[in-house]
Every structure is written in structure tokens, then in C-alpha cells.
Amino acid sequence: MQRFCLPILALGGSLCLVGPALADPAAADVVITSSRLSQPLAITPDATVISREQIQSRGAVFAADVLATVPGVIIGENGFGGISSLSLRGASSNKTLVLIDGVPVNDPSQPQGSFDFSGLDLASTQRIEVLNGPQGAIWGSDAIGGVVSIISLEPDGLSASGEVGSLATYRQMASAGISTERYAAGVSYGGFRTAGVPNADQKFGNTQPDGFNDTTVSLNGRLEVNDRVSLDSRVRYVHAAEEYDIFSNPAHVTDPTASSVVESEAGYVRARIKDVLGFDQELRVDLMGLDRNYFGKFPFGAHGDQEVLRWTATRQEKTWGLQFGAEHKRAAENTGGGLLTRNDDGLFVIGRWSPQDRLNLTASVRQDAFNAYGNQTTARGGASLRLGGGFTVVGSVGQGFKAPTVFEVTYPCLECTVPGPPKTLRAEQALGEDVGLDWSTTGGDTGARITLFNLSVTNQIDYIYPTGYLNQSHVRTAGLEFSGHHRLGHGFSL
Predict the structure, then answer these.
(1) Measuring CA to CA, which residue among 428, 368, 366, 364 is closest to residue 396?
(2) pTM for the full model?
(3) CB burial class (10 A; 0-12, 13-18, 19+) of residue 74?
(4) pLDDT tens digits for 245-295?
(5) Residue from 449, 441, 446, 439 nearest 488 by CA
(6) What are φ and ψ of residue 55, in 5° steps?
(7) Residue 64 belongs to what H/E stretch?
């Protein structure tokens, strides 16, 4: 795998050539679910899928290991256990919405609401879907750069494995479960531990290694009550502990014994009923919670949690599909000043129409109402057209937004010229456009896609001393994404 990126615009644009891609070679058989209204990968603009087989063939431990090879993705890492951030199409990492089994898991206690990928173990992951570009009309706030959706496996039988490496590094994986058409129940475990190396430079005498360990446990259950009614639930627990050094420069370590412990839980309960007034009904409750604790000379603690209640009605026919729904979201954080909350109520409609076999059109619109600052309306449209000879043209235009986080709208800014929370923060706004050309052979053994994109973000929120948080920036990125694959046979592929 090699990745080449060249700047092409003074305003933050980049040209990224990435290969080989991780899109499944049998694209016609892959269905994208993170677009809400499921459709084949081959006709979905801006979509990439990483399958379980691809994760295993690369020996990937953490999600960042495979996501770094997806077109449009940039990973920022700070060693084992250090914060790992993910940016899509040049947008900052806090503009990526992360879902685990459909549960939003962006950290409400983090000042800008981003997600830390450092502890996201892949032991219980079935697949990863990435949607590039603004997806506000589908998922609401935060999906300006795009969406990363982690989908967990449903264990069937017993499985266990382990790995040993240098620096006292160990990895263990195990799962047990049963999966039938009528019911399923299972548990998965993933563990990773390493003694690590010093974060600070050893040539200045910083010889104490900084270790990292991560434990992930997942539980799942499913029951098909009858031919129309089904219930299912999942929960995922992560415990990550890291040692690190705090230093103002490599030669002066302020605290060589600093450490942190992060515990998080995410899960859902869902009920589905088929064919009620012609639509399949779904009602689900999503819950996530996270506690971050830092130890050493500068101790600190933070708590964040989020609740989502979502109802959808979906109908899928051969030539058209329609989904509409409503959701209520509550986000809360406590960084030492008491529990602070934000509420969001959303309504959305998503449609698909295929007037002929060669043409597929999609459109969506969403309205969000926040208790803190008002309403947001976003829309998105996409199209794909098969030209023949294995070629398909795909394109989309979409809007996105990012609501100010609880931290941003309540930060007292005691160091500011005028202390107190900001009074005029507005949501960040985004508009993205892209067009791509996809080609694949009849059997899908060889394929490639090239995509030209543009992303413009206005009202970007920044912290400026001594003013505090305010809307000030206009950021534009543009780029060219390339991906390709070729199946060599005998289990090998590029």
C-alpha cells in the first residue's frame, strides 16, 4: 500500500492518489447500510466498504490501521494509545460522524466533539463503511467531512486466537455465540497490551517506556418473534489505559509518569415490525457514555453521554425506495462544572428512484431543531448512470452542518477580555460536490474509481485568544481521489 498526496489549492486543497482501494471487488453484491436507505455499493457515490475478510488479511488490530487506506481519509496518530483522529476530505477531525452499530459515538465531553480512534479494536468488527462528503440530510449534525460506520459481527460458534510481538506486545481475540434465522446470542472479546517506548526522546535520558492496553467486550442478541416482528440489541464496552510523558520540549519532561484511563459504553435496543400500512417500522434507543480520567501532576476528569430515540418507516421496491423518520437526541458533558446538556429534534425523508436499469437517483432532506440556537435544514442529491463497457458515472451534491458542542456554548472563558460563554455562536455550514467515474470488469476482478470533489465550510468555529470561541473561518478543500483493485487469484489481491 502506498499513498501519495500533493497540494493543489492554496486554500487547503489536496490531490490524493490512494491504492489499492479497500472497496470489495464484488461490489455488485455489497449493500451500503449507512446511507439509511440501503443500496448497492456500485451505484452509491462516495462510498467505501472494508469487509471482515479484508480486515483479517491485513492483520489489522485497530480501525485506524485500515481506515488510513481509504480514499479521502487522513489519520493523525500519537503513538500507541495516543489520540488518533480521522479527517475526511480535508475537513477537521471533529467534522466526521462516527457510528458503531448505528449508535453515534462522538465524544460529547471533548471540546469540539470529535472521536478518538486509538482504542477502536477490530476483533468484533464485521465491516466498516465510509461515506465521504457532507451527509447532514441523512445523519444531521457533525457529518460534514463524512460518516464512518462500524458494524459488529454476529458470532456463530467458538473462536480464539492470539499474537505475540516485541516490546512485550500481546493480542488476544475470542468469540462465542449462536446465530440462526430465528435467534442469535453471542459475546466477543479483544485485548491488546504493549510495554511501548518512551514518548519523550530517549537521547535526553527519557528511558521509561510508556505502555498501552485496551480491552473490548461486545454482547449481542436477536430474536425473530414471528415473520413480521423482530427484536435485537447490542452493547460494546471499551477500557483503554495509556502511559505518556508531558514535556514542553524533548529535553525537559514535566511529568514522566502521566497516565490516562478511558472507559466507554455504547449500545442499542431495537424493535422492527414489517409491513405496517405498507412500510417496515423500526423503533430504536441508542445509548453511549464515556469517562476520561487523567492522572499525574495535572489530574483531570471528564464525562460525556448521549441518548438517541429514533423511529423510521421504510419501503423498498425494485424501482424506488422511501424512508422517513424522526429522532430525538440528548447530549451531555461534565468537565468539572456540572452536567450540561443539549437537545436536538430531527425529521428526515430519504428517497430513491430508478426509472431504468441504468439510472439511479437519490434525494434526502432533513430538518433539525436545537434548543440552544434554532433550526437547520439540509438536503442532498445523488445520481449514478451506467454507460456500458463496465463504466458508471456517479455524483452527488450535499449539505452538512455542525452544531456548536455543549462545551463550546457553555465555556466560561475566564481568560477572555470579556469573560462568559459565547452569545452568538452559529452552526458551521458545509456544501460538497463530487463527480466520479467507476469502471469494473464483468466479474468484478478488476476495477477502479476516480472522483473529483469540492468541499466548502463556512462559519467554522475556532478558539481565538483573548476572544474565546467564535465563527470566523471559511475553509475550502478540493481534490482528486483514486482507488483500484485487482484480484490475482489464490487468495491474493491488489
Answers:
(1) 364
(2) 0.90
(3) buried
(4) 776 666 667 767 788 999 999 999 999 999 999 999 999 999 999 999 999
(5) 446
(6) -60, -45
(7) helix 63-67
